[in-house]
Amino acid sequence: MEKNIIHPGNKDHYISAVLQNENIIVLHWSVSDYKKQIIAFSMGVQPLQLKKQCRIYDVTGISFTGNNARMYMDVPLPDQAGTWKLSGVKPNRSYIIDIGYKGNSTLIPILRSKVIHTPGAGVISEDFTLDTGSWKRGQKEECGWIEQVSTYTQYETNE
Protein backbone atom coordinates (compact mmCIF):
# COMPACT_ATOMS: atom_id res chain seq x y z
CA MET A 1 0.00 0.00 0.00
CA GLU A 2 1.31 3.46 -0.92
CA LYS A 3 2.03 5.88 1.93
CA ASN A 4 0.59 9.36 1.47
CA ILE A 5 3.00 11.97 2.83
CA ILE A 6 0.51 14.86 2.67
CA HIS A 7 -1.84 13.27 5.18
CA PRO A 8 -0.23 10.22 6.75
CA GLY A 9 -2.86 9.88 9.50
CA ASN A 10 -6.56 10.13 8.76
CA LYS A 11 -7.12 10.12 5.01
CA ASP A 12 -10.74 11.30 5.36
CA HIS A 13 -10.01 14.47 7.37
CA TYR A 14 -6.80 16.42 6.91
CA ILE A 15 -5.38 19.82 6.06
CA SER A 16 -1.92 20.72 4.85
CA ALA A 17 -0.66 24.28 4.36
CA VAL A 18 2.63 24.73 2.49
CA LEU A 19 4.45 27.93 1.63
CA GLN A 20 5.01 27.88 -2.13
CA ASN A 21 6.88 31.19 -2.17
CA GLU A 22 6.89 34.35 -0.07
CA ASN A 23 3.44 35.38 -1.43
CA ILE A 24 1.53 32.11 -1.86
CA ILE A 25 0.30 29.43 0.56
CA VAL A 26 -0.98 26.21 -1.01
CA LEU A 27 -3.69 24.29 0.85
CA HIS A 28 -4.64 20.63 0.48
CA TRP A 29 -7.54 19.20 2.49
CA SER A 30 -10.22 16.57 2.69
CA VAL A 31 -13.52 16.50 4.60
CA SER A 32 -15.79 13.47 4.38
CA ASP A 33 -19.36 13.74 3.13
CA TYR A 34 -20.47 12.20 6.43
CA LYS A 35 -18.97 15.10 8.39
CA LYS A 36 -20.64 17.58 6.04
CA GLN A 37 -24.01 15.87 6.62
CA ILE A 38 -23.58 16.06 10.40
CA ILE A 39 -22.82 19.80 10.19
CA ALA A 40 -25.82 20.43 7.94
CA PHE A 41 -28.08 18.52 10.34
CA SER A 42 -26.77 20.45 13.36
CA MET A 43 -27.35 23.77 11.56
CA GLY A 44 -30.82 22.77 10.37
CA VAL A 45 -30.02 23.09 6.65
CA GLN A 46 -29.62 20.73 3.72
CA PRO A 47 -26.03 19.71 2.87
CA LEU A 48 -26.34 21.46 -0.52
CA GLN A 49 -27.03 24.75 1.31
CA LEU A 50 -23.65 24.68 3.05
CA LYS A 51 -20.96 26.87 1.52
CA LYS A 52 -17.33 25.77 1.88
CA GLN A 53 -15.04 28.53 3.13
CA CYS A 54 -11.46 29.12 4.08
CA ARG A 55 -10.71 31.49 6.96
CA ILE A 56 -7.19 32.92 7.10
CA TYR A 57 -6.10 34.20 10.52
CA ASP A 58 -3.14 36.54 10.99
CA VAL A 59 -1.67 35.31 14.28
CA THR A 60 1.65 37.13 14.13
CA GLY A 61 3.19 37.57 17.57
CA ILE A 62 0.24 36.20 19.57
CA SER A 63 -0.75 33.00 21.28
CA PHE A 64 -3.82 32.20 19.20
CA THR A 65 -6.89 31.07 21.17
CA GLY A 66 -9.35 30.88 18.28
CA ASN A 67 -10.85 34.34 18.66
CA ASN A 68 -7.95 36.74 19.18
CA ALA A 69 -6.40 36.95 15.70
CA ARG A 70 -4.98 40.29 14.56
CA MET A 71 -7.33 39.99 11.60
CA TYR A 72 -9.02 37.34 9.54
CA MET A 73 -10.41 37.01 6.06
CA ASP A 74 -12.95 34.57 4.64
CA VAL A 75 -12.49 33.11 1.16
CA PRO A 76 -15.40 31.21 -0.45
CA LEU A 77 -14.32 27.90 -1.98
CA PRO A 78 -15.92 25.70 -4.64
CA ASP A 79 -17.68 22.77 -2.99
CA GLN A 80 -15.62 20.10 -4.77
CA ALA A 81 -12.26 21.84 -4.21
CA GLY A 82 -9.58 20.02 -2.21
CA THR A 83 -6.67 22.28 -3.16
CA TRP A 84 -6.44 26.06 -3.21
CA LYS A 85 -3.73 28.69 -3.60
CA LEU A 86 -3.92 31.67 -1.28
CA SER A 87 -2.01 34.49 -2.92
CA GLY A 88 -1.16 37.89 -1.53
CA VAL A 89 -0.07 36.78 1.94
CA LYS A 90 2.14 39.38 3.58
CA PRO A 91 5.82 38.92 4.41
CA ASN A 92 7.04 38.36 7.94
CA ARG A 93 3.66 37.11 9.17
CA SER A 94 2.24 34.00 10.82
CA TYR A 95 -1.01 32.48 9.57
CA ILE A 96 -3.42 29.76 10.66
CA ILE A 97 -6.02 28.57 8.18
CA ASP A 98 -9.42 26.97 8.84
CA ILE A 99 -11.54 25.10 6.34
CA GLY A 100 -15.20 24.98 7.26
CA TYR A 101 -18.79 25.36 6.21
CA LYS A 102 -21.07 28.35 6.41
CA GLY A 103 -24.80 27.70 6.64
CA ASN A 104 -26.78 30.81 7.48
CA SER A 105 -24.14 33.25 8.68
CA THR A 106 -21.85 31.31 11.01
CA LEU A 107 -18.68 29.55 9.89
CA ILE A 108 -18.25 26.12 11.46
CA PRO A 109 -14.54 25.29 11.24
CA ILE A 110 -13.79 21.65 10.48
CA LEU A 111 -10.04 21.65 9.90
CA ARG A 112 -7.29 23.91 11.24
CA SER A 113 -3.77 24.10 9.85
CA LYS A 114 -0.60 24.42 11.85
CA VAL A 115 0.97 27.87 11.96
CA ILE A 116 2.69 28.81 8.71
CA HIS A 117 5.30 31.58 8.79
CA THR A 118 6.05 33.75 5.79
CA PRO A 119 9.63 35.02 5.43
CA GLY A 120 10.56 38.69 5.50
CA ALA A 121 10.30 40.62 2.24
CA GLY A 122 12.98 39.60 -0.24
CA VAL A 123 14.35 36.78 1.93
CA ILE A 124 13.57 34.04 -0.58
CA SER A 125 15.88 35.04 -3.37
CA GLU A 126 18.95 33.79 -5.15
CA ASP A 127 21.03 36.57 -3.51
CA PHE A 128 20.34 35.37 0.04
CA THR A 129 23.51 34.03 1.60
CA LEU A 130 24.80 33.61 5.12
CA ASP A 131 28.06 35.46 4.52
CA THR A 132 29.36 36.43 7.96
CA GLY A 133 32.97 37.11 6.92
CA SER A 134 32.69 40.93 6.74
CA TRP A 135 30.89 40.97 10.10
CA LYS A 136 33.62 38.83 11.69
CA ARG A 137 36.30 41.20 10.32
CA GLY A 138 34.47 44.21 11.81
CA GLN A 139 33.48 45.67 8.43
CA LYS A 140 29.76 45.43 9.27
CA GLU A 141 27.96 46.11 12.52
CA GLU A 142 25.48 43.22 12.08
CA CYS A 143 25.41 39.83 10.38
CA GLY A 144 23.31 39.59 7.25
CA TRP A 145 21.09 36.94 8.82
CA ILE A 146 20.35 38.67 12.14
CA GLU A 147 16.76 39.61 11.20
CA GLN A 148 15.96 36.03 10.22
CA VAL A 149 16.57 34.64 13.71
CA SER A 150 13.58 34.07 15.96
CA THR A 151 14.37 33.24 19.57
CA TYR A 152 12.39 32.61 22.70
CA THR A 153 13.18 31.95 26.32
CA GLN A 154 11.37 29.52 28.54
CA TYR A 155 11.11 30.61 32.16
CA GLU A 156 10.51 28.18 34.97
CA THR A 157 9.39 29.04 38.46
CA ASN A 158 11.23 27.57 41.41
CA GLU A 159 8.47 26.96 43.90
Automatic annotation (TrEMBL):
Pfam families listed in its UniProt record: DUF4912
InterPro entries in alphabetical order: DUF4912
Protein name as it appears in the record: DUF4912 domain-containing protein
Organism in which the protein naturally occurs: Peribacillus deserti
